[in-house]
Specification:
The chain is 40% helix and 19% strand. The protein is of the alpha+beta class. Residues 439-560 form the GH3 C-terminal domain.
Length: 580
């Protein structure tokens, strides 16, 4: 990005955030003026475009409410069922954060917004780290999945795959990234990952940033490297690609750049052949300025291990977006993952917010329904309050519940800044208690602190409710790793029992009451062997999830996924006492 363009984008951010209220009204007005005559909106607005009528008559919906309309378009009916602008494709969500994959419409305006968004979220990063595109290359782990062709002829693909398919991306790829396009589109994720790491190591002196879309994928890459570094060094030393890489695209790409380099191989081997891999990313890519990946929300659980591997390199979560909507950017990329706030961009969608009450406040006897709650506009949210996000977009989503709960952390000019709290309705429940993603994360954070002084790290966890016996109870699967190579079998079982107790003490009021009344049985932690969560990821990838989009579920719903973890359990521990 040229200096004058970069300065212009920063000025644009100032204008957007200063005039947030006016821009929001303009965005909604444009959406309604274009689409009031569609089959969907006509039933509620009767051709009118007034904001108050929209808020009064158009219902708050979920994907299931809009799915029949989207399916009709995918099956060949015209897009004016839902929106006036022609649909050019569909975005496909991963489905791993709480349900089946969802298809959302893509239009020319959506594509235009995506390009503008990229420039907006990159500008604060450039401000702090310089123009990465001019300094060197990005070693970014990227994985595409095959497009799906709908009966209408329109293609459906993940957001990342759609980006990788763009001609502009393919043009800039060789100059800005270490990974050839063939490795990104390799149908075998493990072969693709091996080759991307190989090319990243070969070009290690040019790498100025390391990353992927999600923190979990960066960790997957580091762990894969931990298991394959000797083989990778041998390939670099001999200038030949391992025989198990059978993908012709990967082999052809390798043949163009690989040549024997024993000196580089020996250097990498000396770095990798050490007792502790603390700071390994910084050692292997010494010019890297930061790690770029989403580290907020469910990805926060990976930050401790990532910080171990990167030793001081900043973890940068640049933006907040999803398949359904573009939302906000991080104006302070140097802040810690736990402190990241996203400043909402008022030109990307029309945003409304449902106030969220404390689920566990015993003084609250009744919760308000969405229908009884007046939604709050973007500029009227209150600092410290939690809200569920509702969006209206140019792509035919009207008053659509995204499913994310956010907390207002402050304002930048007149635009609110939000911290991600949790996915709505991703909960554990044995009886009538409701334990949210945030509740679970807080309890795990308290419990895993007992491991730190002993030299162990909790690298992954997930949960499910076991009702095979009465009363039912919460089960946590933990994967634990020693900082200095110690094996988790060396961990004192008494510590794991203490972790169970600490979790129960840290859970909410309602849970504790139910435990004391024997409505819920004791928390159980099942320790699984190393690589168990990689096997879980492999399962979801085999079912069609892109490795770039994979988000480990906080609560396991799939019987097959549960079997994968249960078959790898090496220890079971229960809380021996009632919580205080």
């Amino acid at each position: 990005m040229a200096t004058n363009e970069y300065e212009g984008v920063l000025k644009k951010i100032e204008e957007l955030t200063t005039n947030a209220g006016q821009i929001q009204d303009e965005v909604l007005g444009e959406i309604l003026s274009r689409n009031a005559g569609t089959e969907y909106l006509r039933g509620f607005l009767h051709g009118q475009t007034e904001k108050q009528l929209f808020k009064k008559n158009v219902p708050i919906v979920t994907y299931e409410d809009l799915k029949p309309y989207i399916d009709r378009i995918a099956n060949g009916e015209t897009s004016d069922i839902l929106l006036a602008e022609p649909i050019t494709a569909f975005f496909l969500s991963s489905g791993t954060s709480g349900g089946q994959p969802k298809m959302t419409p893509v239009t020319a305006q959506v594509t235009k917004n995506c390009e503008l968004f990229r420039r907006l979220y990159e500008s604060p990063v450039i401000k702090h780290f310089g123009d990465i595109n001019q300094a060197g290359k990005r070693m970014e782990l990227m994985f595409a999945r095959p497009e799906i062709e709908t009966p209408s002829g329109l293609k459906a693909a993940s957001v990342s795959t759609s980006i990788y398919n763009e001609s502009n991306f393919r043009t800039i790829l060789p100059k800005l990234y270490t990974s050839p396009i063939e490795t990104i589109f390799c149908p075998d994720p493990n072969q693709g990952l091996y080759c991307q790491l190989l090319f990243g190591l070969i070009q290690r002196d040019e790498v100025v940033t390391v990353g992927s879309l999600f923190a979990s994928t960066v960790l997957r890459g580091v762990k894969f490297l931990e298991n394959h570094w000797q083989e990778l060094c041998y390939d670099i030393k001999t200038g030949r690609l391992s025989d198990w890489i059978t993908d012709l695209g990967c082999r052809n790409a390798a043949s163009l750049v690989m040549k024997p380099n024993p000196e580089q191989a020996d250097l990498i081997e000396n770095i990798c052949n050490c007792k502790s891999w603390e700071g390994i990313i910084r050692k292997l890519w010494p010019k890297a300025r930061y790690i770029g990946c989403v580290c907020t929300g469910v990805m926060r659980q990976y930050t401790a291990e990532l910080e171990f591997y990167c030793r001081g390199l900043p973890l940068v979560s640049a933006f907040y977006a999803c398949s359904e909507a573009i939302c906000g950017i991080n104006l302070e990329p140097l802040c810690k993952p736990c402190d990241v706030s996203y400043t909402f961009l008022p030109n990307m969608a029309y945003f409304e917010f449902i106030p969220v009450e404390n689920e566990h406040d015993e003084s609250i006897e009744m919760k308000r329904n969405d229908e009884d709650t007046e939604l709050v506009d973007l500029v009227n949210v209150k600092a410290g309050q939690c809200y569920e996000l509702v969006v209206t977009t140019c792509a035919g989503l009207y008053r659509y519940k995204v499913g994310d709960v956010l907390m207002v952390s402050g304002f930048y000019n007149n635009a609110p800044q939000f911290q991600f709290v949790e996915r709505k309705n991703v909960i554990l429940s044995v009886d009538q208690e409701k334990t949210s993603e945030t509740d679970l994360s807080k309890a795990v954070t308290e419990a895993k602190a007992l491991l730190d002084p002993l030299g162990f790290i909790l690298t992954e966890y997930t949960s499910y409710v076991d009702t095979s016996s009465a009363p039912g109870h919460y089960v946590l699967f933990w994967e634990i790793k020693g900082k200095e190579g110690n094996h988790c079998k060396e961990l004192d079982p008494k510590i794991m029992v203490e972790c169970c107790s600490k979790m129960e003490e840290s859970l909410h009021y309602t849970y504790k009451i139910y435990r004391k009344r024997n409505i819920i049985a004791a928390v159980e932690i099942r320790v699984v062997k190393q690589g168990s969560f990689e096997a879980l990821m492999d399962y979801y990838v085999s079912k069609g999830t892109s490795l770039s989009q994979y988000k480990k579920p906080s609560c396991i719903k799939s019987e097959e996924a549960l079997k994968i973890l249960d078959s790898r359990v090496i220890g079971k521990y229960f809380s021996p006492k009632l919580p205080l």
